[in-house]
Amino acid sequence: MNKTKFYPDSELIALYINGNEEVLEKLLKRHRDKIFGFIYSKVRNQELTEDLFQDTLFKVVRTLKKGKYIEEGKFLSWVIRIAHNIIIDYYRKQNKMRKVYESEDFSMFDILHDKSLDAEKQMIRNQMIDKIRVLIEQLPKDQKTVLKMRMYEELSFQEIADKTNVSINTALGRMRYALINIRKIIEEHQIKLVE
């Protein structure tokens, strides 16, 4: 592929579908800021934006690989639509989870780092930590490692990436899947974190 020639999105997509894996990076780099900016404008949270951005890229790649993308000369619009749907799905799931597991006064992850708890809340916190530890042990090793580093060592995702010799995106992805898997375990076994 000629490095100096400008290839329209449609040509890059065709090359990718025909097996040229390299062009995908070029295509995504071209639109990264607009996609990321769109997601951030809706969620206003850097970490969440990273997660949803990764989900969007994953869905884009999967759809392209399955040959389900229909070229209409509007690749960016198509990706933004995917991002929009992923954001909506995320908030729907959050609302559902909140109804089941959280209230306005209680969040299972926020309470873990609250040092100013009274005796009763401290007891609840300790019970919850014990239950969460058991859940964490059921996760795949890479997810378990990232989650422990984030929750117990309070490391940034960059620090986790450096310590585990992976990219920051991989660290973010592992954390995301760890939380998804913990929620699935809680749902499947109808575990009550707080009595």
Overview of this structure, please?
With 195 residues, this protein is mainly α. The protein has two domains: 9-98, RNA polymerase sigma factor, region 2, helix turn helix motif (Rna Polymerase Sigma Factor, Chain: A); 104-188, Winged helix-like DNA-binding domain superfamily/Winged helix DNA-binding domain (Arc Repressor Mutant, subunit A), CATH 1.10.10.10. The protein has helices at residues 9-17, 22-43, 46-65, 75-101, 119-137, 141-151, 157-164, 168-188. α1 (9-17) packs across α2 (22-43). The termini are far apart. The relative contact order is 0.09. Mean pLDDT is 78; it is low at 98-108.
Number of DSSP strands? 0
First CA to last CA: what distance? 62 Å
Overall residue-averaged pLDDT value: 78
CATH superfamily annotation of the largest domain: RNA polymerase sigma factor, region 2, helix turn helix motif
For the record, the CATH architecture of the largest domain stands as Orthogonal Bundle
